[in-house]
Design a protein that fits this description.
- The complex is a heterodimer of chains A (377) and B (339).
- Chain A has 15 helices and 14 strands.
- In chain A, a hairpin with a 5-residue loop joins β1 and β2.
- Chain A has 2 domains: 150 residues, Nitrogenase molybdenum iron protein domain (Rossmann fold, 3-Layer(aba) Sandwich); 175 residues, Nitrogenase molybdenum iron protein domain (Rossmann fold, 3-Layer(aba) Sandwich).
- The N and C termini of chain A lie far apart (82 Å).
- Chain A is of the alpha/beta class and 377 residues long.
- In chain A, α8 packs antiparallel against α9 and α14 packs antiparallel against α15.
- Chain B is built from 14 helices and no strands.
- The chains are: A alpha/beta (377), B mainly alpha (339).
- At the A-B interface, α11 of A face α3, α4 and α7 of B.
Amino acid sequence: MRRFFHTAFATAGLMAALMTAAAAEPKTVTDVTGRKVEIDVPVKHVILGEGRQIYFLAALDREAPFSHVVGWRDDLAKADPETYAAYLAKYPEIAKLPVFGGMKDGTFDIEQAVALKPDVIVMNIDSKTATEEAGYIEKLAKVGIPLVYVDFRDKAMENTEPSMRLLGTLMGREQVAEDFIRFRAEQIRRVTDVLDKAKPTKPLVFVERAGGYSEDCCMSFGAENFGRMVEIAGGENMAKSLIPGTFGTVNPEQIIAANPDQVIVTGGNWQAYVPGGAWVGVGYGADLKEAQRKLKALTERPAFTGIKAVKSGEVHGIWHQFYNNPYQFVAVQQIAKWLHPDLFADLDPTATFKELHERFLPLPYKPGYFVSVKDQL
Amino acid sequence: MPHGKPILLTLLAFLLILVAITAGLSLGAAAVPLKTVWGVVADRLVPGSVTRDWSAGRESIVWDVRFPRVVLAALVGAGLAVVGAVLQVVTRNPLADPHLLGVSSGGACGAIVALLHTGMIFGLITVPLFAFLGALAATGAVIAVTRFSGRSAERLILSGVAVAFVATALSNLLIYLGDPRAVQSVVFWMLGGLGLAQWPHLLYPALVLFVSLVWLILRAREINGLAMGDETAATLGLPVARLRAQLFTVTALLTGVMVAFSGAIGFIGLMVPHIVRLFAGSDHVRVIPLSAAFGSVALVLADLAARTLMAPEDMPVGVITGFVGGIGFILLISRRNRG
C-alpha cells in the first residue's frame, strides 16, 4: 500500500512538473536588436512599454488581449482616445491597470516594474538608448525580469514580421502570429504585384507627419515608416533625400520647390496633447467631415501655396497610428489607391481593414481612418 | 565725434540693411535667381511693373515664405537691440540685455502654456498672445518687487533676476507636466526661431516697434542724463525713479512683443549696442536708431545662417546669435583690456 502511495505521489509530482514545464518552458528568443534573451514561455505577466502596443497584442489574442498585461504606459488614451474608449467599453478592467510614465523615452519606475512581477517587459526599439544608459536591462536581469525590444515604427516594414513572431512565441500564440504574417504579406502583394507588372510613373509625394500638431512646418519621414509605405505603394517620397533618418523636418521652401503631385498628412485625435489644434482627427469612428475641414485648412499654409497637389485636390489625411502598428499594410493599400486610382480601382482598403478586424481583432471595424480633400462627404 | 561720422554711419546702416534683406530674400533652401527675387518683390509692390517670367512656386517662396521671415527678423533684431541699448542705461549695467530682467522668461512661460497645455485656442495668434501675456505678467512682477524693495538700478536687476528664476522654474514644471512629443516645439521656441512668420502677424511687432522707437528717440536726451548717474540726472532736474520705471515698462513691452513672435533670441540686445557705441559714441539720439538698424542687420544675417547652414533643417536662430555673439563678446572684452 505504501509503495502504491509512493508511486502515486511520484507520478503526480512528475505530472505536475511536466505540466509546469509545458506551461512555461525556458526558451531563447531573439529580439529585433539581435539580443538573445532567455524567457519562460508562454508568459503570464507582461508590461507594455507603450500603451499602443495593444495594437499587436490584440491581433495575437482577440479573446482576452489584456489578460496578461500587468502594467503599461498611458499613451493609448491620449494618442488614440477612440480606440482606448472602445477597448475600455469591452474590457473595463483596463482602467485599473498600473500606469508608467516616461516609457516613451526609455525611462520608467524600475521599482514599480519589479513590484508587478512581470515575466517580460516589451519595449519599443526607440527606447533602446535611454534604457541602456539607465542600465535597466542589467538591473532587471538581477531580479530575473527579461526585457525585449520590438519595432513597428523605426524600420516598420522590415521589423514587423520578426516582432510579431517574437510576440507570438512569448504569448504562446505562434500559429496566430504566422496567420497574421501571412495575411499581411498577401495584402501587401496585392499592391506590389500590380505595380511590378504595370510599372507606372511614380508620383512625387510629400508626407507631412502630424500636420497641424504644432505650428512648425513641416515634419516628415525619411526612407522609413510612412516614407517607405509611399515607395511600396508606387510613389516617390519627396523627403527621402532630405531626411537622413526615419523622422525629420523639411523646409517649407523645399515643399514649394519640389511641387509634389500628392500630399498625405498623418493625423489623429490629439485633443489630449494639443487641445483645439489644427491636427486632422482621423481614426477609429472619426468625424470625417470635421477631419476634411481641418485638412483643407492645412492646405492654406505658406508651405503649400500653389503646389500641384493642392491645385488638383490630391491632398489626403491618413491615421497617424499606422506608423506604429502591424496594420501598416492597410495604409499601403490606401496610399496605392490614392496614387494610382486606375490601377487599383478594384482594391478596397476598407474591406481589408474590416477583414483584419473580423479575423484577428477584438473590436468591430469602424470607418474614419482616411479622408481626402476631394471626397464627397 | 566728427560732424560727418553720424551721416556716414547712417548711410552704412541703410546700405547694410539693404544688403542683408537682399541676401535674406535671395538665399535659402531652394535656389531662386536674384532677378526673380526682385521681379517678384517689384510685381507685388507695384503690380504690372515687370514682366512675370517666374513660376507660382518661386513667387510663393519669395513672397510667402522668405519675405515675411526677413521682415520679422529685421523688426525683432531692431527691437531687441534698442531694448538692450536702453536697459544698459536704465540698469547702469553694460551686460544688460532684454533677457536680464525676467521679461523673456515670462514670455517663454506664456508660450509654453499655449504650446503644451491650452492648444491653439485662438488660432495661429495663440502662442504670441500667451507669450506677450507672460511677458506682461513678468513685467508687472518686476515693477511690483522693485517698488516694494526700492527703485534703484541694482534693485531693478535683482528683481528681474528673481522673477526670471521663478518664471524659468515654472516653465520647467510645465514642460515636465506636458506631452513629451510637443516639447520639441517648446525647445525650438525657447531657442528662438522665425520660421512661423506670416504677413498678417507682422503688423503687431511693426506697430509696437515704431511707437516705442519714436517715444525712446524723443526721450533720448533724458536717457543721456540717466546715463551720467542718478545724482547727476536728479541735478539736471530729471525725475529719475519715474523715468526709470517708464523706460523699463516701454522696453519690457517691446521685449514682450518681440519674444512673442520670435522666441528667446540672445545676444543681439547685448552685443549690438556695444558695437554701435564703439563707433557712434554715447549720445542716445544716435545710439537708439543706429542700434535698431544694426540689430536688424545682425538678426537678418543670423537667420539667413540658421536656415541655410543645415538645410533642410531649420536651425534655431538663437543658436547662431549665441555662438557668434559669444565669440564677438570675447573679442570685444579682450580688445578693451588691450586698449
